[in-house]
Amino acid sequence: MGLHTATGLNRWVKSAKAKTLYARRLNIGPRLVLGFVFIVLSMLAADAAILWQFHLVRTQAERLNGIDQELVAVQRVHTSLLAFHDRLEDLADSQDAGRLVTEGGPLRTAVLEDTRRAMSALSLLPFDLQRDPTILPTLHAVQSALSWQPEAITTLATSGDWRAVHLRLANQVRPLESLTSELVEKVDHEAGEQQAQAVLNVRRVERLVFWVVPLTAVLTLLIATTLGLAITRSITQPLARLVEGSKALARGEFQHQVSVTGRDELAHLGQVFNDTARRLHDLYATLQSSEDRLRLVIDTIPAYAWSSRPDGSVDFINQRFLEFTGRSMEDILGRGWESLVHPDDLARYVGGWQAAVATGEPMENEARVRRADGDYRWLLIRNVPLRDELDNIVKWYGTSVDIEERHRAEEALRRSEASLHEAQRVSRTGSFGWSVSTGEISWSEEASRIFQYDRTTKPTVELILKRVHPEDAVHVKQTIESASVNGKDFEHECRLVMPDNSVKYVHVVAHALSDKSGRTEFVGAVMDATERKCAEEALREAQANLARVSRMTTMGELTASVAHEIKQPISAALINAKTCLRWLGRDQPDVAEAREAAARNIKDVTRASDIISGISLLFKKGALRRELLDVNELIREMIVLLHSEASRYSISIRTELAEDLPKVMADRVQLQQVFMNLMLNGIDAMKETTGGRELTIKSEAGDGQLLISVRDTGVGLPPEQADQIFRTFFTTKDKGTGMGLPISRSIIESHGGRLWVTDNSGRGATFQFTLPRTVAAHA
After folding, report:
1. Which H helix or E strand runs over 667?
2. Does one domain contain both 496 and 604?
3. Are both 669 and 732 inside the same structural domain?
4. Which residues of 159-198 are buried (b: 16+ CB within 10 A; e: fewer)?
5. Distance CA 345, CA 351 (A)
6. pLDDT at residue 66, as a whole number
């Protein structure tokens, strides 16, 4: 018996394991649902068995009830039929025909109604309860017989044939009583048999219920236990393996793998666990490699790195800092690093570090730290805290960068800025920046001083224009607008009116730049040119005086020639005057001849007057006056003035003047002086030469300018003297001052032109200068 039990238990365990393995093919949700479905189905099966037993009992009860109804219905018909017969018998004995007629109908109706009800009740009973098939036909026969008997009896009673009435009751109605009596006996017999059978069936059902209910409960519990155990084992065993695997991962055993069976969620979780373990193993290896690389990077980056505990004590230093200081890790850990800080910086730096540790705020500081060779180097030191999820500091990290060179550069920059500031102050030159897109202007302290605004005042275009002289405001506005639109460099001079109504000259130069966004900005300088303007004015006056002296000196050298030029027209005028008087002194004055002599006289006097006027202009002292001049006309005037001087040395003057030569804006006296200097230089160069002596003056129009040349056939010019002759006080003449050519170049340059000299390929030299067609109204 024990062996069979053990064998069965072993089979049950193997079956449970097989079911567990099979169950693992399903997910846990469907698995649990199926388990609950099987349990519910087993409970429903047990309930169905119990309900079936109760159904059998109920069927027996319904059968007994049907038999009772059948018996009652038949008995009711039999009783009604007996009452009908006995009443009619009594009425027949009393021979009361009236009462018979009156009561016969209702009695028949009552019997027929009971018969109909019995037939209706019996027809509604289940077919298997109708044991005797003659019941309904018998009741139907009784109903048919009673339907016409009362009329026949009533007819006989009315006719007074009471004997026939008794005979009909005995022969027609009494047999019906016998039929119903037999029917009652049959039904009663059947009812007894059915009741006995029903009692047997009920007892049998009771015995079945006594065994079926406990057996069903035990089977249901066994099925539920088996399913629960199988499902539980299918969940707990993989979970146990996963728990063990998790513990292995917690111990760092990333190579641990769990066995995976089935295809449920736990199997998938096991696969994920194994994949995660493999990934963790790979990540750990990668992390280890990254940590090694990170340590290598930390030790080799061009910075000094370390970490500190929350209290500020150092717990790590990278290799580069150790190499920088020449110390070991043990020497620097904790507070050992303090011995490396320069004594002058130690208190300040340690105080800042302690304050950062106390407040938890990042720190940035600078200090000098001793290098391995004993030199101190400036380091930029930064520290930042690392906080946990509760905002508590768990570590400090810091880096240091050698800023010795930057420190030196900053010191040099400070000195340079100081020098620049002083240079701007001394040179009265300020700097500024202007962003066209934003309109923002920044300027130096010297620039604000030049405009006489407070240093804290924010400069704007409107504020600057407020200082500009009204006569220059339009020009300055146009310059600003043009620069903002074109984005090109600009340069201009203008006058400023100061708060004390004094006038100041400024010279502004600006260079256009583009920022990273492509927007235009200007940087430039503003120079106080007041003193320069005054000096230039004084210089112009001195140059004018020098030029006048030079002209006077030159004219002194030309006294004989000038006197000859003046004497000749005066002598001619004197002769013409005498001739005029002689023609008028005749007895018959010859007015026509006298008028002609007078006209010649006027012409000669006018010529002398023009020469004297030209000479007067050369000697006149006054302000420069620019006007539109015909250069060709000016050349002809100077030829007339210097004609005698050229003739003294047998020098011919030839001109090659361009027709329709544009006029220029220039000062007549200054250009006369230039022509005089150049023509006299040419005459002087040809005084002692042999051969042809010719002075050629040429004018021509070029691209936007006039080109004038004075060519001689003199001794020529050595190449090394091409620039020297324009230097002040340099001369090749025995009695020269060395001022003529420098003054001439200055005059031409003030008119926007250029003066130079070249040696001819043959004899002599050629002086050339240019004049622009349009010259500004102010020098």
Report:
1. strand 664-667
2. no
3. yes
4. eeebebbbebbeebbeebbebbeebbebbeebbeebeeeb
5. 10
6. 66
Measured at the CA of 437, the angle between CA 431 and CA 441, to 5 degrees, comes to 25
Q: Does residue 287 form part of some domain?
A: no
Q: Is the dihedral of CA 532, 536, 538, 542 positive or negative?
A: positive
Q: Domain total for the chain?
A: 5
E-strand spans in 131-260?
none
Count the residues in the chain: 779
- Here the CATH number for the domain that contains residue 366 is 3.30.450.20
Of 432, 450, 430, give the one whose Cα is nearest residue 440: 432
Q: Which amino acid is at 230?
A: A
Q: Give the other-Cβ count within 10 Å of 86's Cβ.
A: 13
Spell out the residues 6+ positions from residue 374 whose beta carbon is closer than 8 angstroms to its own: none
Shared domain for 86 and 114, answered yes or no, is yes
Q: How far apart are CA 245 and CA 260, in angstroms?
A: 12
Q: Domain check: are 162 and 55 in the same one? A: yes
Dist. CA 259–CA 509, nearest whole Å: 85
286 residue type, one letter: T
Spatial separation of the C-alpha atoms in residues 342 and 325, rounded to whole Å: 13
pLDDT at 560: 46
Encoding tokens for residue 539?
Answer: 């210089």
Q: Is 111 exposed, middle or buried (0-12, 13-18, 19+ CB in 10 A)?
A: buried
Alpha carbons 202 and 58: distance in angstroms, whole number: 9
- Please measure the distance between the N-terminal and C-terminal CA atoms of the chain and give it in whole angstroms: 141
Within the chain, how many helices (H) and strands (E) appear?
21, 17
Main-chain dihedrals φ then ψ at residue 275, nearest 5 degrees: -65, -40
Tens of pLDDT along 726-735? 776 556 555 5
Residues 652, 764 within the same domain = yes
**Domain boundary residue, one of 178, 212, 235:** 235
- Report the run of H or E that residue 709 belongs to, with start and end: strand 705-711
Q: At what angle do helices 174-250 and 265-300 cross, to 10 degrees?
A: 20
Task: Report the distance separating Cα 202 and Cα 182, nearest Å.
Answer: 30
- 631-648 and 591-619 helices cross at what angle (nearest 10)? 100
Q: Do 121 and 212 lie in a common domain?
A: yes
Q: What is the CA radius of gyration of the chain?
A: 74
Which single residue is written with the structure tokens 């023009």? Answer: 610
DSSP per position, 510-576 = EEEEE-TTS-EEEEEEEEE-HHHHHHHHHHHHHHHHHHHHHHHHHHHHTHHHHHHHHHHHHHHHHHH
Same domain, 734 and 593: no
pLDDT at site 29: 65
- Strand spans (E) along 191-340: 304-308, 314-317
Tell me the torsion sign for CA atoms 715, 721, 727, 733.
negative
Task: Decide if 172 contacts 81 (C-beta within 8 A).
Answer: no
Rounded-to-integer distance, Cα 430 and Cα 333, Å: 54
Cα within 13 Å of Cα(754), Cβ side: 3
pLDDT of amino acid 737: 52
The list of the chain residues with pLDDT below 50 reads 1-3, 5-6, 9, 13, 558, 560-561, 621-622, 736, 775-779
Joined together, the tokens standing for residue 132 give 């005797």
Strands 694-701 and 652-657: parallel
Residue carrying the six token digits 């009533």: 154
- 580 and 696 share one domain: no
> What does pTM read for this prediction?
0.34
